[in-house]
Specification:
CATH superfamily of the largest domain: P-loop containing nucleotide triphosphate hydrolases
Strand order of the largest sheet: 13-23-24-25-21-26-27
Distance between the termini: 84 Å
Helix content: 40-55%
CATH architecture of the largest domain: 3-Layer(aba) Sandwich
Largest sheet: 7 strands, mixed
Keywords: ATP-binding, DNA damage, DNA repair, DNA-binding, Nucleotide-binding
Bound molecules: adenosine-5'-triphosphate
Number of helices: 30
Number of domains: 6
Function: This protein is involved in the repair of mismatches in DNA. It is possible that it carries out the mismatch recognition step. This protein has a weak ATPase activity.
Number of strands: 27
Pfam family, one: MutS_V
Family: Belongs to the DNA mismatch repair MutS family.
CATH class of the largest domain: Alpha Beta
Organism: Hyphomonas atlantica
Length: 882
């Protein structure tokens, strides 16, 4: 207990997994909480302060699954291991307790186990810090499972936007920054758990020292010229990584400096509403990423996700990515061969990091070996083509060609020969090194196996000597090797002369067990041979781990090259499937697309066997003079889809991907804004309308001439006239002040007149046709405003009760007759309404009488014979189903 309490005192905020033999035990409050979250039995053991100590435990070998559940439930877990064997402890004194210590603190942002991590997504542990003036800020982000480490310097007010571009698992904030607005806003927006750290760890000096120590350099310049905010964020991050690794070395790749201006800025609301990597329901399915992802490796999937989350504004970078996709897009056969080779490549990136952190196992070694071979094969197929490769593909093939890196080739060969086919997860289980790899290991194993044969021979001899054919030599953990005979033969072995050889150990209901001198000696030999074999295997495992550590820079390059090739080939594959084209990029403010489509809606419609109507979109400002389009049209006609497909085209193009269109020319955008859909944010005390206005304000305050803006139905959350006034002002502002390329969808038809005064604005509408009594959506965009909104017909389509539809039609008529007198609207004078009778309730254009209605009206029930009545029923039925 004293040992437990002293360790627990150091980690009060984490559940303590206290290793005792084959279990991790939890005590006191920890046990109560873990039992509740994990649904495991809560027991008690011993007493403390006169009360029983609550206890709960999980088996050591199944700990990963339990850890996963605890982390998901928001807990942190400190793992405390036995740091010596009981035999070692005994040497210090017969009553000595084995030493124990924390080896790791498991938190949501510092996981490395495959079982705990989504394979196709990065895990971002981020730290934010502000510069002294409070206007400068920095983000340091790392993924401990892959070793990636990025640092970005940015303006404090851009913190939240930039941070949300990462798949955050945990956010670190200094206690000292909490009262700063930019930090408080970011914390409020964070969807990931926030961990507060003492201010001293977010200090630029501490950051500098930790950087030097981690990367073993004397001067910082070797890594880059970091400012104070960056160093503070780095300090906060590295200090925490160190804490969670319980003092063992930090294994991260050197930090890569990014500029926030290097990315297309996407604010959190836009990110959510455009469903870039998550749909509104929170699934990957139905998001842009889920729709276009054709990658076959985990590092590839993570790179694609990162590119879509942070599209670039660097034209050279984007063109290089597009060159790679284009090259593959010209040759589908090559795409197939490369993808089929890469498919066999396991997650080298995470495997190498686990091994470097001392948490890896034999399977990680196998993963590295297989990935190197598969990637080499993919690279060889590309070089064998003999054509000139674009720079990204050529760099990747160079990095993956094992003929160009002797040490990596040797490692790959050795891993292939040294490891057995199906190794265990843990190195300590042994049996993963193949026969023939190491002479000393083979000898120890030979000895062990020989002794086993000798035991078999001994069993035969004992059976012979005693005349007991049922005599067996068995093994268990308590007795070790023992002689086992059925109970009825027990007496014979306990009497002379046999009792001189057989020493009685245990009597069970149906068996009696004995040991012999010879057997004990043999058992000792076997166990020594086994220990030696295991020790030998562990030594070989360690040798491989150090080789991997030494080759880390090459392996890191290989992992990136696999990801690069995979993303290029997968993007070409998707382009084939989706009939997407390479965007032409410019430095001006062009946006000119023909036959543009919405990839996600199109894919969903395709599944149902329906087609998608492509539409053109030109916001270039030059030839037509239009950079702002007011989009009107009936509900359900496809306005939102048209708006979103414009924004998605920008994201795809600037991520270096093809765009589903016949052609597209795009002047690179600096930011993308969307104000679509309304949802409230009650947790932050904001009503639906308030959210809408906050987002609108952000756009009007920040959008530039280079931005791309979509706004859907701004103003609808309040009264008609207020809403119209706000929408009106927003369009004018966007047009004349922001001057962005923009699409503005609205149901306020009054707005369509605005184009007369705004030279850069034009009207466009989505067509719908009335056919018989129904509304048919054509999804085609035409220039000019829509004639009407057909809202009541759509309500009817949606299945509103007939009575309500009729009533709506009636109100609509009156409104249309007197649009300028809201105070006299029937809405505010419900009592004056005429009652809902058949005669006045059905506006003709909405529900004209059907043939069946007409037939019914002509009936005179009193004059019908039963036979005529029956005929009439059949006729009415036929009319109704017609
Ligand atoms: N170009 C298109 N081709 C085929 N189907 C389309 C197209 N655009 C939209 N649709 C279909 O129409 C549905 C409604 O589209 P959307 O939500 O864009 O309409 P809307 O005009 O914005 O409606 P509302 O005004 O009610 O918000 C979509 O879910 C999709 O199934």
């Amino acid at each position: 207990m004293a040992q437990y309490l002293s360790i627990k005192a150091r980690h009060a905020d984490a559940l303590l997994f206290f290793r005792m033999g084959d279990f991790y035990e939890l005590f006191f409050e920890d046990a109560i909480e873990a039992a509740k979250v994990l649904d495991i039995t809560l027991t008690s053991r011993g007493e403390y302060d006169g009360k029983p100590i609550p206890m709960a435990g999980v088996p050591y070998h199944a700990a990963e699954g339990y850890l996963a559940r605890l982390i998901k439930a928001g807990c942190r877990v400190a793992v405390c291991e036995q740091t010596e064997t009981p035999a070692e402890a005994k040497k210090r004194g017969s009553k000595a307790i084995v030493n124990r210590d924390i080896v790791r603190i498991v938190t949501p942002g510092t996981l490395t186990e495959d079982a705990l991590l989504p394979a196709r997504q990065d895990q971002a542990l981020a730290a934010i810090a502000l510069g002294t003036g409070g206007t400068e800020a920095a983000i340091a982000v790392c993924d401990v499972s892959t070793g990636r480490f990025d640092v970005t310097a940015l303006a404090a007010d851009a913190l939240a936007d930039s941070l949300m571009a990462y798949p955050l698992s945990e956010l670190l904030v200094s206690d000292g920054d909490l009262d700063k607005t930019a930090v408080a806003n970011t914390v409020a927006l964070s969807s990931a758990p926030v961990t507060f750290r003492p201010a001293r760890s977010a200090n630029h000096k501490a950051g500098e020292n930790l950087l030097k120590e981690t990367f073993n350099i004397a001067a910082l310049e070797a890594l880059g010229d970091f400012n104070r905010a960056e160093l503070a964020a780095i300090g906060l991050l590295l200090d925490y990584v160190k804490l969670t690794q319980a003092g063992s070395e930090i294994r991260l790749d050197p930090p890569v400096r990014a500029r926030s201006e290097g990315h297309l800025a996407i604010d959190p609301a836009t990110r959510t509403s455009l469903e870039i990597d998550r749909s509104m329901r929170g699934d990957r399915n139905g998001s842009l990423l889920g729709t276009i992802d054709r990658t076959v490796t985990a590092p590839g999937a993570r790179l694609l996700a990162a590119r879509l989350a942070r599209p670039s504004v660097d034209r050279e970078e984007i063109e290089a990515r597009l060159d790679a996709v284009s090259w593959f897009a010209d040759d589908r056969d090559t795409v197939e061969t490369v993808r089929s080779s890469l498919k066999a490549a396991p997650d080298l990136e995470r495997a190498r990091t686990r091994l470097r952190l001392g948490r890896g196992g034999p399977r990680d070694l196998v993963a590295i070996g297989r990935a190197l071979v598969a990637a080499h094969e993919a690279a060889s197929r590309l070089t064998a083509l003999g054509t000139v490769l674009p720079s990204r593909i050529s760099d990747a093939t160079q990095a993956l060609n094992l003929n160009k890196d002797a040490s990596l080739a040797e490692l790959s060969r050795d891993l292939e020969t040294a490891l057995s086919e199906n190794p265990p997860t843990l190195a300590r289980d042994g049996g993963f090194i193949a026969q023939g790899w190491d002479a000393a290991l083979d000898e120890a194993r030979g000895l062990r196996d020989d002794s086993r044969q000798i035991i078999a021979a001994l069993q035969a001899r004992y059976a012979d000597d005693t005349g007991i054919s049922a005599l067996k030599i068995k093994f268990n953990n308590v007795l070790g090797y023992f002689v086992d005979v059925p109970a009825r033969h027990g007496d014979a072995l306990m009497k002379p002369p046999l009792s001189e050889t057989f020493i009685h150990r245990q009597t069970l209901a149906s068996n009696v067990r004995f040991s012999t001198q010879e057997l004990s000696e043999l058992a000792g030999k076997i166990s020594r041979a086994e220990d030696e074999a295991k020790g030998r295997e562990l030594a070989i495992f360690d040798q491989f781990c150090s080789r991997i550590d030494e080759l880390n820079p090459s392996l890191s390059r290989s992992a990136s090259a696999i990801a690069e090739l995979d993303v290029a080939a997968a993007s070409a594959e998707w382009a084939f499937e989706a009939d997407a084209v390479r965007p032409a990029l410019t430095d001006d403010t062009t946006f000119k697309a023909t036959g543009l489509r919405h990839p996600v809606v199109e894919a969903a419609l395709k599944k149902d066997g329906q087609g998608f109507t492509a539409n053109d979109l030109n916001l270039s400002g030059d030839d037509t003079g239009t950079h702002l389009l007011l989009v009107t049209g009936p509900n359900m006609a496809g306005k939102s889809t048209y708006l979103r497909q414009g924004a998605l085209a920008v994201i795809l193009a600037q991520s270096g991907l093809f765009v589903p269109a016949r052609s597209i020319t795009l002047g690179l955008c600096d930011r993308i804004f969307s104000r679509v859909g309304a949802s409230d944010d009650l947790a932050r005390g904001r009503s639906t309308f308030m959210v809408e206005m906050v987002e609108t304000a952000a756009i009007l305050n920040q959008a530039t001439e280079r931005s791309f803006v979509i706004m859907d139905e701004v103003g609808r959350g309040t009264s008609t006239w207020d809403g119209l006034a706000i929408a009106w002002a927003a369009v004018e502002h966007l047009h004349s002040v922001n001057k962005s390329r923009a699409l503005f969808a609205t149901h306020y038809h009054e707005l369509t007149k605005l184009v007369e005064d705004l030279p850069g604005a034009a009207n466009a509408s989505l067509r719908a046709k009335e056919w018989k009594d129904d509304l048919v959506f054509l999804h085609e965009v035409q220039s000019g405003p829509a004639d009407k909104s057909y809202g009541v017909q759509v309500a009817k389509l949606a299945g509103l009760p007939k009575k309500a539809v009729r009533r709506a039609g009636q109100i609509l008529k009156q409104l249309e007759a007197e649009p300028s007198a809201p105070e006299s609207l029937p809405l505010f004078a419900a009592a004056s309404f005429t009652p809902d009778t058949e005669d006045n309730a059905v506006p003709e254009e909405i529900v004209p009488p059907s043939e069946a209605d007409k037939a019914l009206q002509q009936i005179d029930p009193d004059s019908l014979t039963p036979r005529e009545a029956l005929d009439l029923i059949y006729r009415l039925k036929a009319l109704a189903s017609d």
